[in-house]
């Protein structure tokens, strides 16, 4: 036999390999550069009914990813890299498959060749299949756990309150939940901005998708950009070599809470504005943009218009965020909700601490209603928690709360003291003790109708002691009828 020229050898080799593969494989297909199926082998036709086709004519010409669930042929074409051995699972079964890119003389990818090497690999490849199944189960359960963690913890109804101000907040929250627009939550610290953001997400069409929060104030400025937009593989050496998704990507399909937006550095503000406008992010070190579908909820306790005025917050970003603002009222403006809040918070505290539930006496509620609550509901929660932990008493009175609120003792015993008296709050301890004594003596005398012996008994002191203290107690007292 004459020696064949090399290029002819190569041609024949390719032809023979193709013939061998396509005749021994359980099925094979050719796909073009545009992912369209251009040819399938006779044997491949056995899979068509399970894929929902009754003829090869209907199947050929379709984009492969549209008709073969979980295929990676499109990836092979786009990357030019073969996937020599893989398991493919879909409604037609589980198969051992191989996928090779096809190139023209210039080396450009012109399509891909795919083969089903074995169907029912369950029988012939039991060990591998068992491992595959186990990994698949582990992956499914990890995904479920992740979804459960990301499931909203609250609903809009978790925002407790039936005052006009609270009802209005909830009405606005329900309304914005129906839209995809950016929401801006404004309110002092501890007014429930984060709680409401969870509620809005849960009431929106995105409830089944992730809710992701970033606290801008808590992330070092130099890391914020990577945290937001992610890092492309190879952008850095070391730990970040593999690349990392940003929060926008993590929230894709769902909601992203940008907490403490007022703490965002100016340089990043313009990038954020672009992302909000384009719905596209560009990971660090990448020159490709990724489309994202994220609803943004921004929150801050800072005065954004003032920040715009002094140049620390971009006006254009402010207007972009301020489409649907919701103002959360401070607790002191909705004291009507105090009792309901106390009830819910006390229940939650007892559930989390395992301690018995403690109820509040009327005098305790009176005292709480006179406090200014600069830390709002978070402060209320802390105060309740401390009072609960500090005593074994089943119910909490004003005396339990007074030291926690920095209220002088006299305000505790006195039947509602005028609010103005409270602003004089601090005084030297001996004076405070003397005032408290005097008030107790006056109260005891009032209760006993002026009977000094009975009053001394009530107070647990000797009559002589009472007489001794009497001038002080009755001296300089405000007009107290009947005293
Ligand atoms: N209306 C409410 N009903 C019940 N609990 C609330 C309400 N508002 C706030 N809380 C509780 O108060 C605490 C503080 O709320 P949250 O963290 O949402 O406040 P914030 O406005 O985000 O505060 P900051 O500005 O300091 O971040 C949380 O424990 C939250 O569950
Ligand atoms: Mg917050």
Short structural description:
The chain has 483 residues and is an alpha/beta fold. It is 47% helix and 15% strand.
Q: Top keywords for this entry?
A:
single chain, 483 residues, alpha/beta, five-stranded antiparallel β-sheet, five-stranded parallel β-sheet, 23 helices, elongated, disordered C terminus, binds adenosine-5'-triphosphate, binds magnesium ion
Largest sheet: 5 strands, antiparallel
Adjacency order of strands in the biggest sheet: 2-1-5-4-3
Q: How many strands?
A: 14
Helix content: 40-55%
Q: Gyration radius, to the nearest Å?
A: 36 Å
Low-pLDDT residue intervals, each spanning 5 or more residues: 411-424, 476-483
> Bound small molecules, which ones?
adenosine-5'-triphosphate, magnesium ion
Number of helices: 23
How much β-strand is present in the residues? 5-15%
Shape: elongated
Overall average pLDDT: 86
Class based on secondary structure composition and strand pairing: alpha/beta
N-C termini distance: 134 Å
Structural overview:
Helix 22 crosses helix 23. The chain is 47% helix and 15% strand. The strands form four sheets. Strands 2-1-5-4-3 form a five-stranded antiparallel β-sheet, sandwiched between helices. Strands 7-8-11-6-12 form a five-stranded parallel β-sheet. With 483 residues, it is α/β, with parallel strands linked by helices. Mean pLDDT is 86; it is low at 411-424 and 476-483. The radius of gyration is 36 Å and the shape is elongated. It has 23 helices and 14 strands.
């Amino acid at each position: 036999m004459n020696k064949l020229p090399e290029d002819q050898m190569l041609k024949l080799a390719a032809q023979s390999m193709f013939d061998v593969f396509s005749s021994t494989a359980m099925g094979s297909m050719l796909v073009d550069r545009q992912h369209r199926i251009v040819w399938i082998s006779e044997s491949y036709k056995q899979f068509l009914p399970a894929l929902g086709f009754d003829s090869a004519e209907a199947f050929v010409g379709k984009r492969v990813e549209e008709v073969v669930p979980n295929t990676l042929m499109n990836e092979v074409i786009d990357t030019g890299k073969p996937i020599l051995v893989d398991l493919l699972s879909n409604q037609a079964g589980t198969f051992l498959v191989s996928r090779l890119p096809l190139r023209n003389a210039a080396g450009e990818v012109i399509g891909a060749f795919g083969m089903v090497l074995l169907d029912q690999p369950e029988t012939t490849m039991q060990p591998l299949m068992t491992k595959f199944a186990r990994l698949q189960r582990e992956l499914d359960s990890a995904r479920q756990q992740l979804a459960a963690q990301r499931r909203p913890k609250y609903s809009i109804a978790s925002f407790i309150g039936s005052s006009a101000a609270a009802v209005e907040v909830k009405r606005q929250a329900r309304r914005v939940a129906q839209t995809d627009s950016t929401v801006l939550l404004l309110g002092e610290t501890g007014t429930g901005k984060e709680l409401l953001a969870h509620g809005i997400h849960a009431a929106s069409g995105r409830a089944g998708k992730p809710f992701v929060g970033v606290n801008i104030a808590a992330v070092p400025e130099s890391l914020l950009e990577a945290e937001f937009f992610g890092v492309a593989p190879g952008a850095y050496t070391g730990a970040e070599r593999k690349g990392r998704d940003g929060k926008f990507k993590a929230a894709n399909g769902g909601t992203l809470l940008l907490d403490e937006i007022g703490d965002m550095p100016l340089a990043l503000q313009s990038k954020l504005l672009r992302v909000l406008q384009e719905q596209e992010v560009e990971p660090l070190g990448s020159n490709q943009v990724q489309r994202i579908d994220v609803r943004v909820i921004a929150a801050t306790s800072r005065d954004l218009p003032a920040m715009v005025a002094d140049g620390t917050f971009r006006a254009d970003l402010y207007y972009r965020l301020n489409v649907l603002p919701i103002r959360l009222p401070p607790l002191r403006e909705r004291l009507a909700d105090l009792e309901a809040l106390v009830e819910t918070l006390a229940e939650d505290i007892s559930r989390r601490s395992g301690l018995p539930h403690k109820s509040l006496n009327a005098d305790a509620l009176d005292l709480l209603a006179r406090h200014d609550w600069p830390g709002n509901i978070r402060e209320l929660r802390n105060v309740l928690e401390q009072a609960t932990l500090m005593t074994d008493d089943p119910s909490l009175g004003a005396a339990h709360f007074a030291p926690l609120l920095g209220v002088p003792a006299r305000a505790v015993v006195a039947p509602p003291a005028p609010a103005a008296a409270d602003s004089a709050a601090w005084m030297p301890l001996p004076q405070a003790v003397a005032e408290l004594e005097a008030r107790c003596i006056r109260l005891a005398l009032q209760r006993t109708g002026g009977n000094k012996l009975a009053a001394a008994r009530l107070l647990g002191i000797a009559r002589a002691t009472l007489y001794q203290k009497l001038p002080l107690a009755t001296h300089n007292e405000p007009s107290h009828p009947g005293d």
